[in-house]
């Protein structure tokens, strides 16, 4: 009879079950699975300990009952096997639940990766859009720079035209703040710094009809080429070349300083050919009131011949010409005159100072407001916009109104006015048509 103590306890199990194939990816067990496995391990250790202790504590007198105890032990082993299978089944269930949770996590991770990919594509599209916008901004900036440059040139041209128009009155030339009396204790405000703009006016109206009409571009090219040669400066350019809006036959070349102005005038006079004229520089008039009549007019009520030089010396300036504004046939001791200066800065200076010396006495200065009057042709003496050199009518004397001679060679005794028919010269200030403001 075999030793019952050495008999092996065989635990019969149910039909073998198929263990599911573990995924290749290492799955980290959850805390719930780890707790369950730890409980199973503790239960198995406790079962083995109890079995060994029971085997050692069997009494000697109980050897006769070993078959019965063996059968009891077999029954107890069967019960322990059932508990082990239950625990193993529970572990398998937990493992299956862990796999399902892992699968859900994988699906969520896949969705997250797809969303990340879509976001990356959106970011790439946004970067491409920003790159295109950057290129458009650069192009727009270049266009705006070009337009701003053109606008600046146009404004400069307009300002030059406005400042240097040949028909400008002094009201347009030297419109400054009114001067304060000299007895004012406050400090006078400093006037703005005068900025002289020099320009050369070229008239092309005398070119023959069969000759090519010089344009502003042709004049610019000719002047620039010649000045570059004289100054040995291949990059020199005209500051501005503009057309007179009131006279399309006049072209103005704006210069930067006086030396450049002289060079341009010399080139225009010598290189532009016959038929072109370089007109005199514009003059800047100022009105002077309370002027001693004797200092300006002689015994015949005519302007003294040496008056311009005398006024220039007294006021330390260059006077081109003057004109008496008050009525000459009215014997007043003091009157008004207009003084034409060659420099705009000088005109501004006298307006700021408020005084102009004439014959040792100071007259008060103010803006000269030119009053337009009808234009007269000095060839036919008619009121028209034609110039004398443009008139195709016979020459008429401005004194006797007869054809064939000039008024400087007239021997007639009875004057006659062509515009109004009155008993005076055609150029007289007594003409109501030529000087309507004086007869209102």
Question: Please, could you describe this protein's structure?
Answer:
Helices cover 41% and strands 12% of the residues. With 440 residues, it is α+β, with helices and mostly antiparallel strands. It has four domains: 29-57 and 65-155; 198-278, Alpha-Beta Plaits (2-Layer Sandwich), CATH 3.30.70; 284-366, Alpha-Beta Plaits; 375-440, no CATH class. The strands form two sheets. The protein has a five-stranded antiparallel β-sheet with strand order 6-7-5-9-8. It has a four-stranded antiparallel β-sheet with strand order 2-3-1-4, sandwiched between helices. Helix 1 (31-56) runs antiparallel to helix 2 (66-164) and helix 4 crosses helix 5. Mean pLDDT is 78; it is low at 1-17, 60-64 and 175-195.
Short précis:
The protein has 440 residues and is α+β, with helices and mostly antiparallel strands.
SSE diagram, text form:
Blueprint: H1 31-56, H2 66-164, H3 170-173, E1 198-203, H4 216-231, E2 240-244, E3 247-255, H5 258-271, E4 277-278, E5 284-292, H6 293-296, H7 307-315, E6 319-324, E7 334-341, H8 344-353, E8 355-358, E9 361-366
Helix pairs in contact: 1-2, 4-5
